[in-house]
Every structure is written in structure tokens, then in C-alpha cells.
Amino acid sequence: MPKYFIIDRGENQCWFLEAGGSLGPVGRLIWREEKGRGSQELAYYDALPLLTVWVCAPPNMGEWRKVRRLKKAVRALAQAGVRQVIWPDNCPWSAREAGFAPIWLEGLYQGMADGLAMAALERVGRTPEQGRVALVGPRLTVALQRTAQRLCPRVKGLLIQVPGQGEDYARWLHGQFGLPVCPMAAGADVTVAFAPQGPRWGQCLEVYQGGGLDGLRLACPGLELPQDVEQQLLAVLWERGMVTRDQLVVAEDGGP
After folding, report:
1. Are residues 212 and 129 in the same domain?
2. Residue 256: per-residue pLDDT
């Protein structure tokens, strides 16, 4: 495995970080709109190394100086082998403009969509035997089908809202699992949306990139992660096969 070294010039520290291939470190950029010196910090979460780099750039600083500071931070991340970065919304430039891949929550949320739906039913006061769940998307994706097949043995009713394919797939599910085919008029207690388009009923779980879980979050008991980037780090761990469905639970946003 190749070794990378990172020097924190602010504190004259040197870390030796083992990483390689898809298991390399994850980066985090923090853009502070204030005076100060940049710094770096390396932390491990399970076997996942996270290199955080701070950039201080007050609003009245000239653009060329901001660019220079950003380039310095980008260079530190790149030299450490970072390819994916948790990127701040207040940075004037995007992760892709800096040459990094963003971190997508979509795979994690869609892989856990059935568990999220069950937690949402409980949150609205419905037992699985009472609850109806709507799955909404522009097409019949593998993730949507997998979610449907996991929910079928557990809930009272399932509404598949996919243009041109939903009714046929709902009939197939009925044949396989005996679950009643819910008409659109029946509505649902919880909606799991796989894209921004489409109708919504009850509590809405938006499991596409840029969506949200309406007060819920995923957590991994026994693994302490910074709450402000917990979901992004879990997404990376999920993508790399370092956490599984059995290790994750659904929790209230802001709760333990």
C-alpha cells in the first residue's frame, strides 16, 4: 500500500497515512469567511481516514488571494491521495472545479429506503399492518424494485407511482406477495421519492441526491461520527462496503 505524508505547516506536524485505491482518504474542506491561517487535521473513523483542511478567506479579500488559498488546500488534499471531498456550500468554487468528486448520499439512502419507510410509519403513528407506503419515481429502477420487494411482506399496502410501469409492476408484486394493489386515490401514509418529480402523500422521504429525510437520519451505533458530516461519511463507508444494512439504524435528526 502506498504511503502519503501530509505536513500541517500551521503546527509543523507530519502525518504518515497509509491509503490506496478506492480505500484512500476522504477530504473535507471548511471555508471560513474570516481572517486567520489555514490548517489541517487528520482523523480516523473506523478504518476511514478523514483529512480536514480549513481555508480562511474574509469577504473583503481579493479573488486572486482566495484562489491562491484554495489552490493550497486543494494541493494538500490531492497530495494525500484524496479523491472525494465533503465540500462546503459557502465556497465560491465547486468540488468538481477543484478536481474532486462530490459525495453522493443517494446510494446510501436508496439502499436503506425500506428501513427509512418503516421508521417514518412509526413516526406518524402507524403500525406496518396499518400503513401504506408510496414509492414514486420516473422509472422502475433496481433500487425502487428492491425497496418494494422488501416492504411487501411488511406493510398493509404499497402504491407504485411510476409512469407507464407502476400498475404492471404492482400487479406482479400482488402475484408474488399477495399484497393488495393500492389505487392512487387511496394515498399513502409515507412517500419514498426516488426523484424530485411525482406526487407526494404523508411524510416524504426524498432519497435522491439533494433530497432529505424529513427529520430522520441514518446512524451506525458504536461508530461516533461528527454529526454535521455524519451522513456523508456513512455514504462513503457504505459505498466502500465498510458498513452494511445490519449495522445501520434510523434515528431522529439531531438525536443520539
Report:
1. yes
2. 64
